């Protein structure tokens, strides 16, 4: 007879702690020994959840929206507004937080808007933005690749895709980062919504060839609030995760001999490095939230009704039951999600990250990390895998125009 465990608050592991941010893979390994595939965690103080660290269990959940819906409204009604993770988890009228017919309506519009992005044109956009960013530091011999390159690159490229002005986009980016950090997420959410309201109003007045205009004009007939809420996950997934993907990939290339050689003609490509990062250190480590409507017995554990069930993408990708350790050409990771809520923007995200890495390494092929890898600080937070800084040094280049004629 099965006697499933019912965990208490003292059993829960804090995903928001600096200790977890510093050594998550050690924590996942310890979780696996103590709890198996389903782990009692806290997303912030007093916010319990279950973290899924078994790959097959995660795939089962992601493909079973009937038992694991994404609508959090029953959960959030008892969560105070000042809860730092509430803006990240709260219900919004968009595809990420909806089920059934509403999910189809929202997702169809998002897929249509994103599918119309010209990937060849996007490649040119990344180059146009990356080149002057690199020009600002290429002659100095040092840089922080987050503040000086990856973050402004991702932010400006997403602005271009969505047809957003720099002023509005800056407020959007600040709001998104504040929500991810969880330090003052409610204020970040207000900043985000106010900025996107201006963007949508501007596109209704002056349409353009961009994702926002295509959402405004979609036959689904979205009102302003619905358009705003479609843009929230596009910005959320397009700025913070993409710049972290660029940074985590550069860190791998700069610290791993298999990739470091590729700077000077090695056999492994930037795409190989990206896929390895998406397995080992995906920029969104824990996400894909679901909320069971009633208690569910899974893997001999009772999952409480309406309590968040979070997929640990990083832990599932490294589940010993499925991981063979060879990531070259292997794209079976869960970094883009799976099932009906899988990310619809993976092509664009891959392109931005790959081009962003290549532009930098083409310009500065002898770039090196300025500190020891264990001196790097990882930003605390239950959802992301994000460095605070990535300091590098290099031989100052010749005048910029001489190595990049465009």
Keywords:
406 residues; alpha+beta; Cytochrome p450; five-stranded mixed β-sheet; 18 helices; 9% strand; monooxygenase; oxidoreductase; metal-binding
CATH first level: which class? Mainly Alpha
Shape: globular
How would you spell out the order of helices and strands?
A: EHHEEHHHHHEHHHHHHHHEEEEHHEEH
Please state the average pLDDT score: 90
Helix-strand makeup class: alpha+beta
What does this structure look like?
α7 packs antiparallel against α8 and α7 runs parallel beside α17. The chain is α+β, with helices and mostly antiparallel strands and 406 residues long. The chain has one domain: Cytochrome P450 (Cytochrome p450), CATH 1.10.630. The strands form three sheets. A five-stranded mixed sheet has the order 1-2-3-8-5. Strands 4-10-9 form a three-stranded antiparallel sheet. The longest helix is centred in the middle third of the chain and has 21 residues.
How do the helices and strands line up, and which of them pair or pack?
Blueprint: E1 13-14, H1 18-22, H2 24-35, E2 38-44, E3 47-52, H3 55-62, H4 73-76, H5 86-89, H6 100-115, H7 119-135, E4 142-144, H8 146-162, H9 166-181, H10 185-205, H11 211-216, H12 224-238, H13 240-255, H14 257-260, H15 270-280, E5 286-290, E6 296-298, E7 301-303, E8 309-312, H16 313-317, H17 346-363, E9 368-369, E10 391-393, H18 400-403
Parallel strand pairs: 1-2, 3-8
Antiparallel strand pairs: 2-3, 4-10, 5-8, 6-7, 9-10
Helix pairs in contact: 7-8, 7-17, 8-12, 8-13, 9-10, 10-12, 12-13, 13-15, 13-17
Keywords: Heme, Iron, Metal-binding, Monooxygenase, Oxidoreductase
InterPro entries: Cyt_P450_B, Cyt_P450_sf
Protein name: Cytochrome P450
